[in-house]
Write a structure and sequence with these properties.
Elements: H1 2-10, H2 21-33, H3 38-47, H4 52-67, E1 77-80, E2 95-98, E3 104-114, E4 121-130, E5 133-145, E6 151-155, E7 167-177, H5 187-218, H6 222-239, H7 246-271, H8 277-285, H9 293-309
Parallel strand pairs: 1-4
Antiparallel strand pairs: 2-3, 3-7, 4-5, 6-7
Helix pairs in contact: 2-3, 3-4, 3-5, 4-5, 5-6, 5-7, 6-7, 7-9
Amino acid sequence: MIPTLDTCLRAHTDVPARPSVAEWWPRWRDGAAGAATPAAQALLGGFDADRVGWAFASGYQAALRALLPDLPTDAVAAFCVTEEAGNRPRDIGTRFVPQADGSVSISGAKRWTTLGPHSSLLLIVGALPSPDDSARVQLKVARVPTGVPGLQLLTMPETHFVPEVPHARVLLEAVRVGAAALLPGDGYERYVKPFRSIEDAHVTLAVLAYLLRETRARGWPTAFAERLCATIVVLADMAESPADAPATHVVLAGALAQAQALYAEAGKLWAEAGDDPAAQRWQRDCALFGVASSARGLRATRAWEHLQRGD
């Protein structure tokens, strides 16, 4: 990670304005293709972002590739978990139904699919009947390309923060995929649950890299840049650690707390920029950093409980 960070400390800080996905995506795709790890993809993508929205999107795409290393870098991927009732296992109403020809039929609906309107590959979470007891279901994840019959992507209204990053409703009506489209293992334990930590680490890496570029470009205090770098190194190291390990969650909690303090400090620096459009976007978008904070706190609490029990 140090070589990638070194690049961010030496590279030119001028980046063009990118108001839409169409301007952001080719830059991220090309940069990600040459990055050694998903953490490096997040860091370079965040550094190249002209706003928090594209730092978030860069971290999100990098996180999906940390979860599934074989995802192609030229596909806008989206993880489709949340439904009308929520995103807990019991909230998942999407159903995978095996067919006589070996294929699987998928029916259901998803909400708040990040980058959904521009996605080319969806990771759909659904329930598959257990082969030994039809009354039981197990969650699975299916890789579904967009454009297949029976699949619709409906753009949702813009959010109040990072409105440049679009979301979609995903409607699936008897969408057919081959059995090989189902990812191995339990969909919740192997994919949904660890992704929460993986996403936090990579999105935060990208946002801190964005702040590092702005710090260099605007001549903000060197001490602030040094704290950004230190937190980046911790997060990058954590991103390479097992996502289900209690120690990983403890370190992540500490690094995210450091990041929150850095965001607060950045807010004061941005305030001095007055009516600069970048400063106004930061003030608008900083609500992003509080999303799912209670879930992160609960995750850290449970990690400490596991460690104290010796699990």
